[in-house]
Amino acid sequence: MERNSAVCAMEWSIELEKALRSKKPVLTVFDDSGLYVEVILQTGRRLEQWSREPETTMAAYNLFGLVPGEDRLFANTILLRLADAFKLGDKHTKLAVVRIFLSEYRNRDKKKNKGNKGILTKDRVHNQLELLTRVKVVFDTGDLESRALALALFGCWADFAKDSAQIRYLILSSLVSSHVFEVKASLFAAGCFSELSDDFACVVLEMLVNMVTSSETVPAVRLAGARLFAKIGCSNSIAIKAYKTGLKLVLDSSEEDFSVSLLVSLSKLASKLTILTSEQVDLLFSFLRQEKSLRVKATVLRCLHFIFMKGPAHFPPSADIIKALLSTLTEPELPTFMQYDALRILHKILSYSLPHLPCLEILEIDKLLAIGENSAQSHIISRSFLFARILADIIKLRGKTEMESGVLCSSTVPSRVVSLIIDQITLLVVPLSDLCQTYSQVFQKVNIRLNLLVLLVGEHPDLGVLVLDKISLLIESVANKHDHVMATKQSDVQVDKMEDFKREKSTGIRSKLMLIVYRFVVACLENLNEASALTPVVFERVKLLVDRVCQCSLFDCFTHTIYSLLLHHRRIWSCLLNESEENCHLNRNSLNSFFVEREIPTLECANKILKERHNWRAYRSGIYAACQGAWFTASFIFGELVTKVQSDICHCWLNSINELAHSERKIQLLLLPNQGSTLAEWLERNKFPASNVLDEITKDAAGNTNEPNYIEELAGAYEGICSAGKTLEAANASVQGFCFARWFLHLRARFIRALVDILRILRTIPFNMDNTGNNGEVGSSISVQSLKSLPEIGQMSLHFRKLAGEFDLLAASFIDMDDKSAKVISSLALSCSLLAFSTGFIFFIPNLASYDTFTTCGLENVEHCLHAMLVQNLTGRLWHIDHEINRNLCKLFDISGQGKKCFHLRSRNKILKVGCEEKDILNICGYAVAGAVHLQQASKEDSEDISSKVTKDGLQHLSSIIMKLLHITFRTPKYFFQVRNCIGSKIFSCSSNTKKRDGISALPGCSLSLDLCLQLINMPPNFLARLTKLYCILYSRVSFQEPKPSEREKQQGCRAWETDDLVEINEMLFQYVTNLSARKINTSKRRRSENNEDGFVYSFVHFEPNERGQGFASCLLDISSFPVGSYRIKWHSCCIDNEGSYWSLLPLNAGPVVSVRRSGDTCK
Q: Residues in domain Integrator complex subunit 7 N-terminal (predicted)?
């Protein structure tokens, strides 16, 4: 358990005391070598950390073994020692003390809107009078500099110093001092007090006006006074009065320095009050239209940007404001940095208010575009990029309405914007051939511009072909530039070692650049796929792009490999075959031909990488192949790399993913057996150096040329995936690093095993019996066999439903997972939900003999609404994706009154929604649901023949759904290959009712009171900043009894996949957090049901996390019904981020063990 500031307070106090007694000298003002100055500054950093933490709770006191109030005692001791150091120390010590409190004040001021007031608030500082007295002594007896430093301290302590009449008088009297240094310090203190006290602010405002209007006031004081206007705003009335006063002063002033400072202060003040924002914007734009100096206009633009960054939604900007900014941009003498500021303001206004503005004239858009193109020609990259972003926003936000009105549909604005962005990218990347730039910064800029192109293609899919053409030309220009540079160098000098080094470095830079372009092309294809715009024309452009890259010797084999993988995109080869609407019924010969055509170039590229001994690039190529579903290439690469590693951990890892690739290749050969034999012939004919792969492919393809044995081959794949998981389990080191991989392999293996089981069940049903005979006997045979299989099929439905929940939990348990990996897992969860629906729902059709049989087959404990839960699960996944399927699903609720009663839509984490790219699965969902509706309609006629036919059709429908799902290429999520310690949490606990440290115990018949600490583990800092809430559920059963409490106190890593009830517990926690069952779930309770023999009890806990991801709380667990013994308390936690998303946290340690002991004492 990580110690917080309260625990360290005594240690910090002692260190400070020792340092203040040190006699080491300090040489200069900025020399921190003196021990006491160094520790003072360190103490300041600790106080800032302490100010950011929540106040210590009783749970934290108990867990850390602290006396309540102990931390406050030491905090006040530290403050007193710092005050003594300020009082008794020399000039350097005084400066150090003031520096730390100024730093704390500024950080507190930045975070004041977050509700954390800090450690120097009035209610947390008890010895206020002693602190103020010590500093006042310095003010009364010190020199001018000491008096100024004392005033600065009073300002930093304004929260409790504002109530002291003596301190107020000191500050006000110092405002009329004859010393500039003292006056400026008093103005700072007066500003701090004015933010907290209305009456003090009124007095200061009157004195301030007299000060800045007096002719005797020196310019430095006038400027400091102008800056003070920004802080006079404790209440709205005082703020408005201060703004009106400052407005009059700035309009009457002819002094440029004073006007500039006052404009900044008034902008800060106006940004705090919505009623002043519009008036201040009008004031600033009036200055912008007038003949003012460049300095004033630059200040105006800076102030406007500050206001709009706060949110221009406070007022409706008019078209006149936009025209004024466009007019400013066309000024010939306007410096570049001012044009950049004007562009940022324009972009911010349009991003907020463009949908509400009147339609912009096409001439204005052309004018903006022309300015952007001129900027691109002048090589001002940042400015021209802002033009492109603004134009892209105009296209994106106003595209629909303007296209309907004919404003943009006939214009060339979108294509010109694309050309503008591509020209910028060309200007960035072409000079890389000379190795004269910092390429990491260039790549960052290229990424930003390519992302903008992706957004444009998403809004305007018709731009896809143009963008791909431009990218091809970009690649060609890079290659031509390189050829020109190399030809020049070879004609000038002979190639030496330095040139070889530069050539190798240049190859690496080009490889990174081409990888960035590759990711962009993939993103464009995804957007086009989502918009149903992946046409054969787009495919031809992609094929030309791939051919251009792969035929260019400038790029390395790794680049050739990943680009060849673009042709493995399922939608791409669907376009080639012109059968995109019937993906599951493609001609096998056509598929086999294209599979081989696309696989061979990829294998050749991979072989070249391995020949050149670029093992790391080969490994990365294998990852790309696995993520794309190119299992022949992945299996070949990983199989070769296994023999090249020496580390045991690396060998286990490569061996595991090789077994996975081999198993998935078996499934791929199962679907297209001719591909295996064709590939084997090619490998043997070309003497491909992969004898092991050749033997395995030949073996896998043997006997599969006719009708493949799905059950046997899938069972073999299941064994291979299980073996991959066991291989990782054998790697004892870094168990957490393989947590996701092992969990994913476990779920994948269970999915394959479930398919094997359901196919074995369906194999027992005689679908292919000769129907020319007695139809009644045939139907009876099918019905009898179907009824025998119903209990097993019902269990499989429950199994698939649980498996879908486990895939959901997997995706929600890794907060740092990328979106593409989350989509892959969501697709697998959708497949499981679909199979649960298909295996369970067709047997809940009334008027069938199977319906009554199923309700008495041992599954009646599903509360008679299993069909409703299955439909609900599938509907929740498709609710915002496919409305047609959901309409058909809603028709199925009329079959039972229980259906509607059990139905409620589940709020889902947004990252778990299935992307529209998974159209193959969505097509199967539509097919499955339509078939279920047809079966329901057909079953309404009460006839034995109809019942037999519906039963047969339902089972054949299920078999067809499974075959369709098998034809979808399985892809590994990219996150699978990110081997790292998983993000999770640990829980620490102690009993609230006792101070004993020998364990947690309770008396029979009593509830258990616990103090808890939830600590996040391995959480990156950027994610910590996003978290807002932590929640936890603690639960136990009588069956969790342990004979020896001390044996299982330590949990070896994370093994979430071995916890049977984790999905159910996570669902309970999810419902609690989202308030779906607020009336049914209390903070602590026992499960209320007629059959609660297991004594299941649970309690929910809410934590407020600090900046280190640590929270403290107390809870009550009702174990009063537990008999004497020791019981494990299990737990699960989650967190909520600033966007309201729910994330599960893996438990990285075991929960506490509680002992229920007899005693002569009575319960309290």
A: 74-489
Among 168, 167, 169, 186, which Cα is nearest to 178's? 186
The pTM of this model reads: 0.85
In the predicted model, residues of the chain with pLDDT beneath 50 are: 25-33, 113, 400-401, 403-410, 435-436, 491-495, 577-586, 691, 703, 770-773, 849-851, 853-864, 895-916, 1047-1052, 1077-1080, 1088-1091, 1162-1164
Asked whether 893 and 868 are in contact (CB, 8 A), the reply is yes
Element spanning 1117, H or E? strand 1110-1117
Residue 647: exposed, middle, or buried by beta-carbon count in 10 A (0-12, 13-18, 19+)?
A: exposed
Sign of torsion, CA 1108 1114 1116 1122? Answer: positive
At residue 400, the 3 state secondary structure works out as helix
Q: Cα–chain-centroid distance for residue 743?
A: 20
Give the burial class of 1038: count Cβ atoms within 10 A of its Cβ; 0-12 exposed, 13-18 middle, 19 or more buried: middle
The dihedral sign for the CA sequence 566, 571, 572, 577: positive
Query: In which order are the strands placed within the sheet that holds 1097-1103?
Result: 1084-1086, 1097-1103, 1027-1036, 1130-1137, 1142-1147, 984-991, 1008-1017, 1110-1117
Q: 88-111 burial by CB neighbour count: b if 16+ within 10 A, else e?
A: ebeebbbbbbbbbbbbbbebbeee
Locate the domains of the chain by residue range. 1-126, 316-402, 411-488+499-550, 784-976, 983-1043+1053-1081+1091-1156
Give the pair of three-digit tokens for residue 1159: 């005693």
* Alpha carbons 464 and 452: distance in angstroms, whole number: 13
The Cα–Cα gap between 423 and 417 comes to 10
Q: pLDDT digits over 310-360, tens only?
A: 765 555 556 677 777 877 877 777 787 887 788 888 777 776 665 555 555
Instruction: Kindly tell me the sign of the dihedral angle through the C-alpha atoms of 461, 463, 465, 470.
Output: negative
- pLDDT tens-digit readout, 761-816: 888 876 655 444 455 555 556 566 666 666 777 788 889 999 999 999 999 999 88
Amino acid at site 1120? S
CA separation for the pair 196, 187 (Å, rounded): 15
Q: How open is the CA angle 757-758-762, to the nearest 5 degrees?
A: 120
Quote the distance between the C-alpha of residue 12 and its chain's center: 37
Kind plus residue range of the DSSP H or E element containing 1072: helix 1062-1073
**Coil, strand, or helix at residue 114?**
helix
CA 38 centroid distance within chain: 39
Whether 943 and 776 have beta carbons less than 8 Å apart is answered as no
pLDDT at position 292, please?
84
Torsion over CA: 466, 467, 473, 476 (sign):
negative
CA 718, CA 664: separation in Å to the nearest integer? 9
Structure tokens at 464: 């896809």
Count of CB atoms situated within 10 Å of the CB of 792: 16
CATH of domain 983-1043+1053-1081+1091-1156: 2.60.40
| pLDDT score, position 437 | 52
Instruction: Please give the angle made by the CA atoms of 481, 561 and 693, to the nearest 5 degrees.
Output: 155
> CB neighbours of 299 closer than 8 A, spacing ≥ 6?
260, 263, 264
Residue pair 410/461 in contact by the 8 Å Cβ criterion: no
Side by side, the strands of the sheet bearing 1153-1156 are: 1000-1002, 1153-1156, 1125-1128
Q: Provide the 8-state DSSP code for 1137.
A: E
1132 - beta bridge partners? 1033
The pLDDT tens digits of the residues spanning 576-626 come to 544 434 444 445 555 556 666 677 888 888 888 988 888 999 999 999 999
Residues 274 and 314: beta-carbon distance below 8 Å = yes
